[in-house]
Fold:
Amino acid sequence: MANINNMEMSKVIFANNNIAINKSFFGLKTSVSYIPTQSPVEAKQYEFSQETGRKIAGIMSASDDELKELVSKVGKIDKSDMGNMRVDICVSRDRQFIALHLFQYEGFSYSPITEPRIIEGETAKAVASLLLD
Structure:
């Protein structure tokens, strides 16, 4: 499992008004939760193929109104063991909150190709079901 503190989008997540950060064990352990549902937020990283990465970029660039329709059209998104696209995901356990950040492998490292995107509510649940199930 990835660590939210080490993700590039951590500042965006921590700045969100619906996110609570709790430090424990002398400040060495950080737990993050989604305030409206009190659900813990976990970080994940997955790799995808170039084609699948384009689908994810489309999801991330869609407006909130377009997103619901787009999610139903895309269908299941398959992960890859050795893809050149990576998505950093922070998702609450109840899936009411999801944050996404898309990267592409180039020049021996991953470079961001999108800005972080935060989605909340039922739309977040739908997006999470595409990427995590």
Q: What stands out?
A: The radius of gyration is 15 Å. The longest strand covers residues 39-48.
